[in-house]
Amino acid sequence: MAKKDRRTPQQAFVTLRDMPGTRVMFWVVDTCPYCGERHLHVAGNIRSDPGESLGEHPAPCQPDRTYELALPPQPKKKGGKDARRKARRDAKTDAWDEDTW
Ligand SMILES: [Zn+2]
């Protein structure tokens, strides 16, 4: 088994949330790979592409470590390219409508 490099950023899966009443969007790390807690990262506003703010970020709980914000793998669905595109759009809409945090 390969030895884990301490400096290799762990992947942190995120969901996109908006803040009610604002145009600000957040990436929510539901389970931090280091501490298991939830962290928020500003993803930009509604007019910018939130995907641009994915990638490596300092972990709020570990000042000398980073993690890589990544979208969770989408469940595989039957169908071709169009179905996949629709699934992605649906997933995004769900995240925006969710109001549980
Ligand atoms: Zn953490």
Automatic annotation (TrEMBL):
Skewed-composition ranges (Basic residues): 75-89
Lineage top rank: taxon: Bacteria
Region of interest: Disordered: 45-101
Protein name per its UniProtKB record: HNH endonuclease
Protein's organism: Deinococcus aquaticus
